[in-house]
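User: Can you recover a sequence for this backbone? Please restate the input before giving your answer.

Assistant: Of course. Working from this structure:
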């Protein structure tokens, strides 16, 4: 008797892993499948701080939305996608749906990552992928090294500017995000609370 085998694509395997590992984040970065465990409490509080800061600055009134866990289709390879911790997107971002809870990069104004055990992905492949996707701002709360990084001005697949912040500094989000007055404490981003 012949047995037919079905060969899974990387995207199929990512979907399977997402189903069997609830709470984990499954992404495909530069053709590599990555799985990140659920965030800890400080990580979650950092994201809450981002939401509150953008809300205080009037991001919704400016036609923006801030979302967590929404997929960003990446133009690097056909099945590549990331799921940033936090994103600032155009209010009509749902019209840019590509497939499988992933949206076109042109509706993303900023993405932010708070590092966890997969910190090397946030500091390496994601910098390249987000720049190649043309995301204007990439903010990283690098808890491993105790600093906040802000990448700006993507051109030719690379960010042209990098600013570094230490605990005690205030990160002023550039107005290219679409709203002014977003000031973030580096301590809040790194530790979840001031």
């Amino acid at each position: 008797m012949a047995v037919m085998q079905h060969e899974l694509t990387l995207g199929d395997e990512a979907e399977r892993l997402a189903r069997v590992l609830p709470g984990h984040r499954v992404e495909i970065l530069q053709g590599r499948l990555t799985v990140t465990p659920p965030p800890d409490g400080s990580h979650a509080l950092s994201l809450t701080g981002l939401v509150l800061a953008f809300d205080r600055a009037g991001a919704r009134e400016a036609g923006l939305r801030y979302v967590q866990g929404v997929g960003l289709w990446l133009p690097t390879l056909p099945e590549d996608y990331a799921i940033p911790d936090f994103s600032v997107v155009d209010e009509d971002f749902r019209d840019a749906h590509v497939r499988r809870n992933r949206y076109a990069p042109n509706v993303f104004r900023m993405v932010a990552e708070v590092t966890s055990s997969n910190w090397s992905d946030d500091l390496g492949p994601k910098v390249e992928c987000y720049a190649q996707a043309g995301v204007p701002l990439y903010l990283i709360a690098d808890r491993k090294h105790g600093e906040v990084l802000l990448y700006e001005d993507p051109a030719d697949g690379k960010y042209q500017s990098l600013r570094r912040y230490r605990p005690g500094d205030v990160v002023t989000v550039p107005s290219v995000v679409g709203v002014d007055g977003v000031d973030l404490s580096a301590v809040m981003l790194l530790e979840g609370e001031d």
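That completes the design. The longest helix spans residues 41-56.
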